[in-house]
Amino acid sequence: MDISRFEKFDAAVAENLPDTINKILGLKRKKKYCAVGFITTDDFYGFYLSWKYTYRIDKFYDWKNGINPTFLYQPLVDVVDASKDINLLERSNEKWEFAKAVLAVLEKNIKALPDEVFTKNCYNREDVLFFATTSDGDYIDEMLDESIKMFNSADTFKKYRL
Fold it and tell me: Residues 6 or more apart from 66 whose CB is under 8 A from it?
């Protein structure tokens, strides 16, 4: 997968993700856990950001906290619209490669979050579990499993008993 097609999405996430995570963590300073999910549609038409102060990420589709930040929507929609060579409506190797490229962009930016985003809200980095998946259709479990491995440290795995 040519990652260069994700440059604008990557730049938008890099610019806006720290403030967004800061706001989420600031809502409930120093809970024991906070899980943050990047939820997309089956055809990758933008992300919905959801979170819950829990160590369980089951039933993430029913979580009440959520936002639709512009930086997680339009820049990714532009990538999808420019990717005419991939049928994102059907399960395929190309679609899975696209999914992994999207996860790689998120991984890079999650790992680049400044420690201050966590510490000023009385969290340690390992207190927050990040994941991404689709809300329905193809690759729900695959994206969930892959993203948890990509986005989180061994310390987070221990804390969340994964």
Answer: 48, 49, 50, 51
Domain encompassing residue 18? 3-159
CA geometry: angle 83, 85, 88, nearest 5 deg:
65
Q: What is the pTM of this model?
A: 0.94
Structure tokens at 44: 């990758």
Q: How many domains does the chain have?
A: 1
- Encode pLDDT of 82-133 as tens digits: 999 999 999 999 999 999 999 999 999 999 999 999 999 999 999 999 999 9
The CA-atom distances, in angstroms, between 101 and each of 37, 43, 79, 94, 131 are 17, 14, 11, 11, 15
The Cα–Cα gap between 41 and 11 comes to 21
Contact 76, 9 (CB under 8 A): yes
What is the CB neighbour count within 10 angstroms for residue 6? 22
Per-residue exposure over 46-70, b if at least 16 CB sit within 10 Å of its own CB, e if not: bbbbbbbbbeebeebeebeeeeebe
